[in-house]
Write a structure and sequence with these properties.
The protein is an alpha/beta fold. The chain has a single domain, classed as Rossmann fold. About 35% of the residues lie in helices and about 20% in strands. The strands form 2 sheets. Strands 5-4-3-6-7-9-8 form a 7-stranded mixed beta sheet, with helices on both faces. Helix 1 packs across helix 8, helix 2 crosses helix 6 and helix 6 packs across helix 7. The longest helix is centred in the first third of the chain and has 16 residues. The structure holds S-adenosylmethionine (SAM). The site of S-adenosylmethionine has 20 residues, from strand 4, helix 6 and helix 9.
């Protein structure tokens, strides 16, 4: 097991199956049926998106939505949609993170495995898409649970926009950048030093002196 200060993993480099897994997922749409609760959550969000005249920004894996509010404050003309599957985390937002000054965002409880596919089908074109500290799934056997090893990676590409992913596990970000490169998008993993932490995980890692990593790129899905 490798302990790089913060992440314990039996993987010491980019996963040996990354390229094969990414190429397979690029060829096939993910066809798992979408449950009713996901359809309902998406419909609610889609109504608000249709009514919004300005740009859309996504904040996937938003947790308690601190970043969603921060991004909304920095983009007052945009509607920012934060997505997280944990109602426990989303429910903390109103009490601990909301403010009367910033109102151009919504938090949606949904699984990105469903939500991204529905957003692609509805032709959403977010100008930016943040993926801040997704669960690392650090065991080698968990590659397919990571964003870039997942069958919905192709939907992340199809949504497009400026994508930024952050993590404290360098292998995750290096794999993400390599998956983007395999899919035809220039991308690289870079060390990252936030001036101000915008999520609880970013704050926790920064205060503990962890090196943070990010990858910023503008993907597209070549058909
Ligand atoms: C490590 S936390 C990071 C939360 C927040 N971005 C932060 O930095 O504080 C990862 C979040 O991803 C959410 N999550 C994991 N898998 C998900 C999925 N398939 N769809 C939506 N949210 C998911 C979890 O509920 C959790 O809130």
């Amino acid at each position: 097991m490798l302990d790089s200060k913060n992440i314990v993993s039996n993987q010491q480099d980019i996963h040996e199956s990354l390229e094969a897994v990414v190429r397979k997922h690029l060829l096939h749409r993910f066809r798992r049926p979408i449950p009713d609760y996901s359809l309902q959550a998406f419909e609610n969000a889609n109504e608000q998106v249709k009514q919004h005249a300005g740009p859309i920004i996504l904040d996937s894996f938003c947790g308690v939505g601190e970043s969603t509010k921060h991004i909304a404050a920095a983009h007052p003309d945009a509607l920012v949609i934060g997505i997280d599957k944990s109602s426990h985390r989303i429910n903390k937002h109103a009490e601990h993170y909301a403010s009367d000054q910033v109102t151009n965002y919504r938090l949606i409880r949904a699984d990105v495995d469903d939500f991204w596919r529905l957003a692609v089908a509805a032709n959403w074109k977010p100008i930016k898409h943040f993926l801040l500290y997704p669960n690392p799934w650090p065991k080698s056997s968990q590659l397919k649970r990571r964003c870039h090893g997942s069958p919905v990676f192709r939907d992340l590409l199809a949504l497009g926009g400026r994508v930024e992913i952050r993590s404290n596990w360098p292998i995750y970000i290096r794999e993400f950048a390599q998956a983007m490169t395999i899919a035809g998008t220039n991308a690289s993993a870079e060390p990252f030093h936030p001036e101000q932490a915008i999520t609880p995980f970013e704050r926790k890692y920064s205060q503990s002196g962890h090196q943070l990593w990010h990858c910023v790129c503008s993907p597209h899905l070549a058909n």
